[in-house]
């Protein structure tokens, strides 16, 4: 058994592990966690951290939740994994029916995968194969928004912002897509027609080549934590219909209550042709994602010469993950989650407001259980990360953004500790 002391875990990690968005040869300190419960992470040296990130936004119920633990244990005693080619199982059937019932009418077909990036890949392939099935193979390009982020695999990278995104160094190797300006209309304001001028022009000029438009509804996540008017989605839906282009919503970050609605698309009451879900789907317990589509796409592909959608992840619809997702969704819906998220928004807004007084801060904004301090200059992770740990919180900034997406179970006192630490660190930068 591995020695669980702080020094040995750090030494072993440094010798063998490569962390995301970090060098492999040191330079960025890692913090060994040996257990977690509720909203707290227990470090190997005895310290505790309040987790303001919900493990990259997915652990909405916190850690070590008895309901989710029980779901995993129960399914483990039945079947832990099953190939999904030619077989099915009760958790997959129940979860698919649940997702169809919870999402907008018409999204009646569910394709499971094992990560958000793959869910986006599936959505892109669905759109392209649909137009191929209709004998329109030239419609194989995607149109995305600047400041967007959709994942780290090659297809997903191609629809992330090619200039300000995390993947610009791969630019020459990626498929060339079309990009429209990110919406500037604020979340609580209208979306004037001028906002739609450039994307409308792109669709008019290149619609014959575009299979689908892909956007993160209302909230652009890892590309900048930007919030925009739901009216933009209403007008975008109309444009896509007019130009015979499919519409994909990437709700991997926003799904399951994060913005105050079960799905961010509900702010606009707009249904996409394809919907991507992930992250909080299992409450952060297991890796699972889903891509939903309407019958138009399903029938088009199924009735074509090929007759099948050409994708098949080995671990799609993993029974353990599906059972946990069912338990997580039922747990969420059994509680007054809307009022909980409203409380979190109020507390995040009040707690982060003092940061507006600092010269280094460009903007402070909140929406649902998302709180953001945007700085004027990018942070140095080697300096800022230990500052948060020293204050007893786990916050993982990136670029110019210091933000929190806490578990929904976080109590008011812990939110105050979290926001106080965020403001205090910004004050000391």
Written overview of the protein:
The chain is of the alpha/beta class. It folds into two domains: 6-64 and 336-428, Aspartate Aminotransferase, domain 1; 70-333, 3-Layer(aba) Sandwich (Aspartate Aminotransferase, domain 2). The chain is 35% helix and 16% strand. The chain contains 13 helices and 16 strands. It has helices spanning 6-16, 54-57, 66-76, 90-102, 116-133, 154-158, 197-206, 231-242, 295-302, 319-333, 337-352, 381-390, 412-428, and strands spanning 33-37, 40-43, 48-51, 109-113, 141-145, 178-180, 210-215, 219-220, 226-227, 246-250, 274-277, 289-293, 361-367, 370-375, 393-394, 401-404. The chain has a seven-stranded mixed β-sheet, sandwiched between helices. Strands 1-2-3-15 form a four-stranded mixed β-sheet. A three-stranded antiparallel β-sheet has the order 13-14-16. Helix 3 runs antiparallel to helix 10 and helix 4 runs parallel beside helix 10 (319-333).
Distance between the termini: 40 Å
Q: What is the overall shape?
A: globular
Largest sheet properties: 7 strands, mixed
CATH topology of the largest domain: Aspartate Aminotransferase, domain 2
Q: How large a portion of the residues is in β-strands, by DSSP E? A: 15-25%
Derived from helix and strand composition plus strand pairing, the structural class reads alpha/beta
Mean pLDDT: 96
């Amino acid at each position: 058994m591995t020695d669980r002391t702080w020094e040995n875990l750090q030494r072993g990690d440094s010798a063998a592990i490569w962390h995301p968005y970090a060098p492999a040869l040191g330079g960025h300190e890692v913090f060994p966690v040996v257990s977690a419960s509720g909203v707290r992470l227990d470090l190997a040296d005895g310290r505790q951290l309040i987790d303001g990130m919900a493990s990259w936004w997915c652990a909405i119920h916190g850690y070590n939740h008895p309901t989710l633990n029980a779901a995993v244990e129960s399914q483990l005693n039945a079947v832990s994994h099953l190939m999904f080619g030619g077989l099915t199982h009760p958790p997959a059937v129940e979860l698919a029916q649940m997702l169809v019932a919870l999402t907008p009418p018409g999204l009646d077909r569910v394709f499971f995968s094992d990560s958000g990036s793959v869910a986006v890949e599936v959505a892109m392939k669905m759109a392209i194969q649909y137009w191929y099935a209709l004998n329109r193979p030239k419609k194989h390009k995607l149109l995305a928004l600047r400041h967007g982020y959709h994942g780290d695999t090659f297809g997903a990278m191609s629809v992330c912002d090619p200039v300000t995104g995390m993947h610009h160094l791969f630019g020459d190797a990626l498929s060339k897509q079309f990009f429209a300006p990110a919406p500037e209309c604020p979340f609580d304001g209208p979306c004037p027609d001028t906002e739609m001028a450039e994307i409308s022009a792109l669709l008019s000029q290149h619609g014959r080549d575009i299979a689908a438009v892909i956007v993160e509804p209302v909230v652009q996540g890892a590309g900048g934590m930007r919030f925009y008017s739901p009216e933009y989605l209403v007008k975008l839906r109309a444009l896509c219909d007019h130009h015979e282009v499919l519409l994909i919503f990437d709700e991997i970050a926003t799904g399951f209550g994060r913005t105050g609605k079960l799905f961010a698309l509900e702010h606009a009451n707009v249904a996409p042709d394809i919907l991507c879900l992930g992250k909080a789907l299992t409450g952060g317990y297991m890796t699972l994602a889903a891509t939903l589509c309407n019958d138009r796409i399903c029938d088009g592909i199924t009735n074509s010469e090929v007759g099948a959608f050409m994708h098949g992840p080995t671990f799609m619809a993993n029974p353990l993950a599906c059972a946990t997702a069912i338990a997580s969704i039922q747990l969420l819906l059994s509680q007054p989650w809307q009022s909980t998220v409203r409380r979190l928004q109020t507390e995040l807004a009040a707690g982060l407001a003092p940061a507006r007084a600092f010269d280094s801060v460009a903007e402070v904004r909140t929406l649902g259980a998302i709180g953001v301090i945007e700085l004027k200059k990018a942070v140095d992770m080697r300096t800022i990360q230990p500052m948060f740990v020293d204050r007893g919180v786990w916050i993982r900034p990136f670029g110019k953004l210091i933000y929190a997406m806490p578990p929904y179970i976080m109590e008011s006192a812990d939110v105050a500790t979290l926001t106080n630490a965020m403001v205090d660190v910004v004050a000391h930068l």
